[in-house]
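User: Here's a chain of 140 residues. Predict its fold as tokens.
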Amino acid sequence: MLSPKRTKYRKAHKGRIHGIAKSGFTLAFGAFGLKAIGPGRVNAREIEAARRAITREMKRAGRVWIRIFPDVPVSKKPTEVRMGKGKGSPEFWMCRVKPGRIMFEVDGVPRAVAEHAFELGAAKLSVPTKIVSRLGEGGH
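Assistant: Prediction complete.
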């Protein structure tokens, strides 16, 4: 699973996801992409599950690019622990995704294969998505 090698701070504020993506909203590598159409937090497990689903459906043909990286630590207190006594320890890593962000890109496979692979990958993610291509936008 993806996680940063080192970070400046061990714990982060939750924050809010406002506005639309300021970068990473156009296809840069592949012919087809999976674009977020709603805001959300995508954790490292979801990214890995989606990547596996996409590459498996493509039968390891073509190439897959992951355009998001989980760099925000999410802390959690243990179950049945009383309030107070500070913030919990970091449990997992996640990525804040704004609407318009391209999360995955593929190339080297036919349109039908790419679309089906993205449908399977999108099912693993917790944000609403749509499939985009260099030619135009395909709905999802």
